[in-house]
């Protein structure tokens, strides 16, 4: 039991973060940059961000990471910026090595590692925004 608590105890009390994703055909997908050539994100598995210099739209270049937001309420606020919310969902996740996304006017952070727990709001099912 000590081995389990020593290795996993630090993850049990981690803060939850939230991520807006595409959700289509029972698959969670990234909105923008993919992972190893695929936009599909596995659930209940730690995955490392593919770190590289990227650009969102016409913005400045930055070192990529998993885009996460500190609360569901802030995700809902951020979703108001989208022109198309079809096939969108919010997932609850745990993250490691999180930093504020530079030059972002909103509460968007970048995580080096993400573990998606579950979908908590599925726009396709008519969950309210």
Features:
2 helices, mainly beta, about 130 residues, disordered N terminus, six-stranded antiparallel sheet, single chain, 8 strands, two-stranded antiparallel ribbon, ADP-ribosylation fold
Structural notes for this entry:
- By secondary structure, this protein is mainly beta.
- The chain has one domain (15-125): ADP-ribosylation fold (Alpha-Beta Barrel), CATH 3.20.170.
- The chain is built from 2 helices and 8 strands, in the order αββββββαββ.
- Strands 1, 2, 3, 6, 7 and 8 form a 6-stranded antiparallel β-sheet that branches. Strands 4-5 form a two-stranded antiparallel sheet.
- A hairpin with an 8-residue loop joins β7 (88-100) and β8 (109-122).
- It is globular and about 35 Å long.
Report a brief summary of the structure.
The chain has 129 residues and is mostly beta strands.
CATH class (first level) name:
Alpha Beta
pLDDT below 50 for ≥5 consecutive residues: which ranges? 1-5
What are the secondary-structure elements, in order, as H or E? HEEEEEEHEE
Structural class of the helix and strand makeup?
mainly beta
Please tell me the CATH architecture by its name: Alpha-Beta Barrel
Q: Approximately how much helix is present in the residues? A: 10-25%
Number of strands: 8
How many helices in DSSP terms? 2
N-to-C span: 43 Å
Give the overall pLDDT as a whole number: 85
């Amino acid at each position: 039991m000590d081995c389990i608590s020593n290795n996993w105890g630090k993850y049990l009390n981690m803060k939850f973060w939230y991520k807006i994703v595409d959700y289509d055909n029972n698959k969670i997908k990234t909105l923008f940059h993919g992972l190893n050539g695929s936009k599909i994100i596995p659930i209940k598995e730690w995955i490392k961000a593919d770190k590289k210099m990227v650009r969102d739209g016409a913005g400045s270049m930055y070192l990529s990471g998993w885009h996460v937001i500190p609360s569901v309420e802030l995700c809902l606020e951020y979703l108001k910026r989208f022109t198309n919310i079809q096939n969108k969902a919010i997932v609850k996740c745990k993250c490691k090595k999180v930093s504020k996304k530079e030059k972002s006017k909103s509460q968007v952070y970048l995580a080096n590692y993400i573990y998606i727990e579950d979908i908590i709001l599925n726009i396709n099912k008519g969950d309210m925004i």
